[in-house]
């Protein structure tokens, strides 16, 4: 899939997840979460080509424009969406799967000053992270897990779980835990 195709996919994903989005043009022009991921792809490409200083400089310009800091070394999957993104921080060795959604104030950070190896979290496909949550260290958050607002996650979490509290504790989602409205707003589907 080419660059324009990926951008269209991003706009569709944002439209599905945000009931306030009224049109594709509104999303393209006014959503800093989309701008941040689009710029990240440029800076990540430079990072992979060892133009690291330029990639870091570009990521800092993007941060100033969007309020969202994504290190150019971070690996981010398809259909990633940041809703109300101000204050989001994604560290260098973070890895995000497909269909991940973050709200404002989320930190995917490290817990060590060691400059080598994996220092930041991995979020599997379909993870949703609530406002102000902090996920710290080289841990893995399993598929379709929901992290509650302001939770502090420092340990691996299984798939299909809910993480709440400080420090966050995982519980398996039950049949009555329905988070589909957070992933897709059916009234606004395309």
TrEMBL record:
Pfam families, per database record: Hexapep
Enzyme class (EC, first level): transferase
CDD domains recorded: LbH_SAT
EC annotation from Swiss-Prot or TrEMBL: 2.3.1.30
Pathway(s) annotated for this protein in UniProt: Amino-acid biosynthesis; L-cysteine biosynthesis; L-cysteine from L-serine: step 1/2
Keywords for this protein: Acyltransferase, Amino-acid biosynthesis, Cysteine biosynthesis, Transferase
Reaction it catalyzes: L-serine + acetyl-CoA = O-acetyl-L-serine + CoA
Record carries keyword Amino-acid biosynthesis: yes
Superkingdom as given in the UniProt entry: Bacteria
Keyword Hydrolase: no
Family recorded in the similarity comment: Belongs to the transferase hexapeptide repeat family.
Record protein name field: Serine acetyltransferase
Taxonomic source organism: Microbacterium profundi
Lineage, uppermost ranks: Bacteria, Bacillati, Actinomycetota, Actinomycetes, Micrococcales
